[in-house]
TrEMBL record:
This is DNA-binding protein. It comes from Streptomyces anulatus. It comes from the Bacteria. One of its GO terms (molecular function) is DNA binding. The keyword DNA-binding applies. Keywords: DNA-binding. The keyword DNA-binding applies.
Amino acid sequence: LGPTVSEATAGMSPGRLQEILAATGLPATHDPVSAVAALAALFTDRTRMAELLDTAPVEALSVLDRLVWGPPYGEVTPNPTPPVKWLRDRGLLLPVSTRTVVLPREAALHLRAGRAHRVPEPVPPVVGTAAERDPQAVDRAAAGQAFTALSTVEELLKLWNGGGPAILRAGGLSVRELKRAANSLDVTEPIAAFWIELAYGAGLLATDGEPDERYAPTPASDEWLDLPAEERWTHLATAWLAATRTPGL
């Protein structure tokens, strides 16, 4: 499900909100808050919502059918087709960016008609064995990945020792510095973001606290480097399991 009407219209101009109300046949309001509330109330009123959808072009209903079960986002062009324009005019598609729209949650819940899934599956599917793997080969591959994790984080700490990249005013790492780290670690940018986030989450990297803040290894990283390989891996794996941060965002 996508954002609520209130979330999706945050920052929308009062004039645009009034245009949506007029297109849906709702009376004008005196402020954006009441306009958003009126639109959300329409989308949660089964009778009035059904009446509104009865006036929709068939093609517009097809668009809604593609979005209702997710993902609720769709791309639009500067000159949308008439069905998409009909939906946008009535707030059934709300803008996320200049090229992306979203089906608001209240409208999606109405269209789902109380169902949690498009097609109920009361019986679990039969799970078969896709492929047989040699346990020893699996263990060797896992050990190899563990050592790769250790060596990559060690290389990152060495790379940023003595003062790493500057922290952006809004927080985080610049795209240029992420590219530079990825090149130095010989990995892709998403993979570099993962290792940086993991080292940060494990307490091995932090801001240095100087007026011109930069990322740098922490005192705890020195202790970590002195640990046996299995304990260093356990520390990283524990931090990964507890992580709530999403690399790259």
